[in-house]
Amino acid sequence: LEKEKDHVEGFAPEVAWVTKSGESDLEVPLAIRPTSETVMYPVFAKWIRSHRDLPLKLNQWCNVVRWEFKHPTPFIRTREFLWQEGHTAHANKKSADDEVITILKLYARIYEELLACPVIQGVKSEKEKFAGGLYTTTVEAFIPTTGKGV
């Protein structure tokens, strides 16, 4: 977490800390990683040696824990959730932007055509975007019983 402190600064209030093991207090509290972007990119530097190695496209599934709200929504958004993220490297911004739009549209199709769940595609606000990103896209569904989007 120390290595990633600049990146996870925005997540600091949401970090879950393990302070006990059974009945024993831990000497040093353990942080449960709230995000994983910074793990990927040092490896990219080893894998990408020239333009011939581009584009590089990785897909990652991992569990994430965030203490980001008082009342989680069971089965929809709890404090621990399965997180899917794509990490790519491209020769230019246009290629990267095109990939983002392609994947965003694929997600929307899955929700709408396979799950019959209407969604809104969009771009997160500056406050909501991931640290270090130029922008963060989203596919969100409305939950009528709560009045919230997810």
UniProtKB/TrEMBL annotation:
It is an enzyme of class 6 (ligase). One of its GO terms (molecular function) is proline-tRNA ligase activity. Signal peptide: none annotated. Gene3D superfamilies: Bira Bifunctional Protein, Domain 2. It holds the Pfam family tRNA-synt_2b. One of its GO terms (biological process) is prolyl-tRNA aminoacylation. The keyword Transmembrane does not apply. Residues 1-150 form the Aminoacyl-transfer RNA synthetases class-II family profile domain. Keywords: Aminoacyl-tRNA synthetase, ATP-binding, Ligase, Nucleotide-binding. One of its GO terms (cellular component) is cytoplasm. PROSITE patterns: AA_TRNA_LIGASE_II. It catalyses: tRNA(Pro) + L-proline + ATP = L-prolyl-tRNA(Pro) + AMP + diphosphate. Its EC number is 6.1.1.15. This is proline--tRNA ligase. The lineage of its organism: Eukaryota, Viridiplantae, Chlorophyta, Pseudoscourfieldiophyceae, Pseudoscourfieldiales.
